[in-house]
Amino acid sequence: MRDGSGLIDLASVADEDGFIQRLKPLPSAVGTADVLLSFSPCLPFSQPEDFSNTDCTDVAACVIIRIHQDNRFISQYLNYGRHEGNKFSYNESKKTLTVSYSMFPDSEPQTVVHYQCSPNHSITHSQSFSADGPLQMWVESPCACPNACALVDVGPGTIFLIILCLSVTAYFIIGHSASLR
């Protein structure tokens, strides 16, 4: 953060594929349709993965509406925000980082995610999908606390020690095999 109070690594809040939610059902008022959400805080993704020409290409959030019609599903993919032009704000008293994702830079946010610092395990809550406002998500995680889950960078000293250990091991293996001749 700008004030030097720490770093919140959003990638560590996500799973190993970079998603916080992937095809997770959302409660909805869209009749008999199923509404699903996929969201990745850091990595752009596309859905469906095998088509490159949908609204959900290189997005942060995608809402999928599946309608069952004539014994088959018809799916509509809706872009609910990209990583470009995100707006970040931090509430010190609530220990909450809020990130807004828009379809286009300087447009109204489609998805607003509140990352709450919590000492407990990670929990994600989603509000119901509606056309009245942005999709709201709450993520409670220890990794939403400043400096809690920062990635450790491998420094030059560590690299030097690894090379030294490999060299010593190679020296003993070559020396041992030479003494057997």
Describe this structure in words.
Residues 16-147 form the MRH domain. With 181 residues, the chain is mainly beta. It has one domain: Mannose-6-phosphate receptor binding domain (Cation-dependent Mannose-6-phosphate Receptor, Chain A, Distorted Sandwich), CATH 2.70.130. It is built from 1 helix and 9 strands, in the order βββββββββα. The protein is elongated, with a radius of gyration of 23 Å. The model has no long low-confidence stretch (mean pLDDT 82).
The gist of it:
The chain has one helix at about 155-180, and strands at about 20-25, 35-40, 60-70, 70-80, 80-90, 95-100, 110-115, 125, 135-140.
Specify the CATH class: Mainly Beta
The dominant shape is elongated
Structural class: mainly beta
What is the percent of helical residues?
Answer: 10-25%
Radius of gyration: 23 Å
CATH topology grouping: Cation-dependent Mannose-6-phosphate Receptor, Chain A
- Major sheet strand order: 5-6-7-9-8
- Could you describe the largest sheet, including whether it forms a barrel? 5 strands, mixed
Strand content: 35-45%
Count of the separate structural domains: 1
The CA-CA distance between the termini, in Å, is 62 Å
CATH superfamily: Mannose-6-phosphate receptor binding domain
Overall strand count: 9
Stretches where pLDDT is under 50 for at least 5 consecutive residues are none
